[in-house]
Amino acid sequence: MQVIDSHTEGEPTRVIVSGGPDLGSGSLAERAKILATEHKDFYRSVVSEPYGQEAMVGVILVEPVDPECVAGVIYFDAAAVIGMCGHGTIGVAATLAHMGKIGIGTHKIETPVGVVEVTLSDANTVTVKNVASRRLQKDVRLEIDGVGTVSGDIAYGGNWFFIVDKSPVPVIPSNIRNLTEVSIKIREAIETKQLTGTDGGIIDHVVLYGPALSKNGHSRNFVLCPDNAYDRSPCGTGSSARLACLAADNRLAPSEEIIQESTIGSSYRLSYQPSTSDTIIPNITGQAFITKEATLMMNPSDPLKNGIKLS
Ligand code: PYC
């Protein structure tokens, strides 16, 4: 299996360019469902230790249904197949450029949740025009053990998020462990209360916001992903969901650009255009760098071929 690895603002992406499982020729959503239900061990092992690394998001490149798209993509982390991935899409664009499949300019990519556009400005700098994003519920209050009441918004940016505007824990690198624990408790409370997105969409990402640490930053975020790793980048889909909340509250004007910092201090430039009455189209600009071209070899006799599982 041939893979190309990259990182987007510190967050790793592994693109499977050949040798992945046959997912058929249905819609991208149908192929994502087949990956989720029939190939769990496979996708886990591609991104988990010892074959992958913590926080890695994997991508299978597939034939798109829409002939206008340069590629179809299906994203996953070590715990789940996810609908869309902003940092992953920036990584895919840099990877397709590295492979000589796209050049400078704008290209369409098909995901299980819709078509997105990528604009490659140079070999590393990519702007993603994401799927329509929206806020579903404002000020949902949760009682969190050892923390107290936490209030957040349920919003969509390609995945479903619980977005806490004022983090109960300062968003600084030395608090990563505490931020992770609090975010996991928040996600557990969401599960207990059976809160979901539209059509039962699972709220599997939690974002905590705090003040920016750089002079020009708008804010800094901590993002918990389904595999309990934190996003090293500011999270493209999470930033999209937050933009929808800022727009809904009239806290950010269309086309106004902000700098979103991640927990590690990397950043995205963000803006949006209004779409329908309750949705916006986000723009996310960041940089990805290729780190590796490799052949991944999974020996059937390796007892850890499906990744390390600690119970
Ligand atoms: O950038 O959208 C994102 C993302 C989702 C999970 C990890 N990164």
TrEMBL record:
**Basic and acidic residues biased stretches:** 1-12
Task: Give one GO molecular function term.
Answer: 4-hydroxyproline epimerase activity
Which residues constitute the signal peptide according to the record? none
Region feature (Disordered):
1-22
Note the SUPFAM superfamilies from the entry.
Answer: Diaminopimelate epimerase-like
Q: What's this protein's family per the entry?
A: Belongs to the proline racemase family.
Q: What is this protein called?
A: 4-hydroxyproline epimerase
Q: Which species is the source of this protein?
A: Marinomonas polaris DSM 16579
